[in-house]
Amino acid sequence: PSSRPSDIPSSIPSSSPSDIPSSSPTAASDAQILEFLYDSTSGYTSWTHKWRPFVQRYCDYVGVTCNESNEVTAIELGSNNLTGTIPSQIGKLNKLITLVLNDNVLHGSIPSEIGNLAELTELRLEENKLSGSLPSQIGLLG
Asked: Closest by alpha carbon to 117, among 85, 86, 135, 90?
């Protein structure tokens, strides 16, 4: 269930992270993946610096950097009160170089799909409540 506020029009479709098939690398746009991140980490209710989905262009979101082709290259949301889990779909942001989610209230395991981010050079997840082992796929990153 989405935690969307009531002022978001119901005509705008709501979806959940399971709506993107994990076997299809082109099934989701970067904008959809960012929406899943926002939903799964209580963006509407908890974040200190909120995004404005459906109003703002995703490359203009606080903490998001895109290249000239509007592909997400960085997500820097450290110390932003993210609460929830990291969605596995984040592994579909194939141009992501920087992922900074440190000093938040994230829990659960680190998705193994982060290992799909071949361009990732900076990963910061410290100071959260993450559990489990570090996925071996992360060791394959450049």
From this structure: 90
